[in-house]
Known about the structure:
30% of the residues lie in helices and 22% in strands. By secondary structure, it is of the alpha/beta class. It folds into two domains: 2-133, Domain of unknown function (DUF4445) (Nucleotidyltransferase, domain 5), CATH 3.30.420.480; 150-406, no CATH class. The strands form four sheets. Strands 3-2-1-4-6-5 form a six-stranded mixed β-sheet, with helices on both faces. A hairpin with a 4-residue loop joins strand 8 and strand 9. Helix 5 (140-149) packs across helix 10 and helix 7 (268-292) crosses helix 11. The radius of gyration is 21 Å and the shape is globular.
Amino acid sequence: MAIDLGTTTIVAQLLDLESGKLLGLRSALNPQAAHGADLISRVRFALDSDVLTSLIREFLGVMVHDLATGREDEIVEVVLVGNAVMHHLFCGLDVKPLSHAPFESPNNDEQRFTSNKLKWKLPGSSRIRFLPSIGAFVGSDILAGIVAVRLGSGRSLRALIDLGTNGEIALGNEQRILCASTAAGTAFEAGSITMGMRAATGAISRVFVDNAKLRCSVIGNAEPRGICGSGLVDAVAAGLDTGAILPNGRLANGAREFPITGDVRLSQHDIRQLQLAKGAIATGLRILLKRWGAGINDIAAVYLSGAFGNYVRPESAVRIGLLETPLNRLVASGNTALRGAKFLIGEDRYSALDIIEHVSLAPDPQFQNTFIASLAFPQPQAGMLQQTFPSTSSLRGDNASGSDRM
């Protein structure tokens, strides 16, 4: 089995090691979210309680048993990946070092368990291991992602960006890889947005401009109830294109709200939350590029991972300044953490770790100035690639599964 233990979502796959065939798939929301939507909140909660460890072990035990029903005795290995906080919470490690600067823990190594210790219904011979973290808030999910996209091979400079609550960035080639984490918050998942919601029926997932008017795609072809992360980025991009939102993030003409459709609208606070999130990601990449001695145009490809990274429209991400790379270099890469975890089944050595350097962003003397400079939205540029929009009818029929969309 391979398990991606995400802050928000958990995905597990059952695999046949001989044929490589996928035998089963399960996904679920992380039950720890009831005790904090973001990592810092969970760390603070865990300082006074071990509930989060017992909760996630029990939850995953049920998930694993359900996925392996009838084949429990055949499970030889379970590989888990996740960010550093998920690693510590699952493994029962002290999270106190992750609660204050410099946010470095002495316990980033791979952790191994027996099914008896975890109380999982698997053979005692099953090898269960949580892969090692790279550094403060940069976990084995990024290590697995680096393996999945082969970031450590070839001479061309490439980047991997996991767009989520804990935004993680890797930049490198066969010589070295720089990694960092950014506190992007929950805006990309619409968690801090007034009318934000998960990508479920009734969520606006796409917004576009048609004859100077906003048109929307609503999941499930239903009446709009709110807006999810991909819709939020589209909406702000559309607002910038129509002049309803200014480059500094203020609503034009003193408006207090930006109406999308029906009763769904964005507040000034919502736009600020997205600015903070996109500013954090842009800052992280800018600082890593400076450390490398390269510019944005030196990056041959940017791999976007995670649910949000897979569904955000690249044109909109570039329009708001979340991503500054040319569109033709952006690659939606799906769940690279889970794919890499599968590649690492049976592996006992992680060669990528030999060339990875963890970069802590906050101590960088240019961090504050870079972050402030990254908050503004880009001005429209002459010759900028124009967005193309499908018909309104086809968008209203968008009924893709909400469980995997952000």
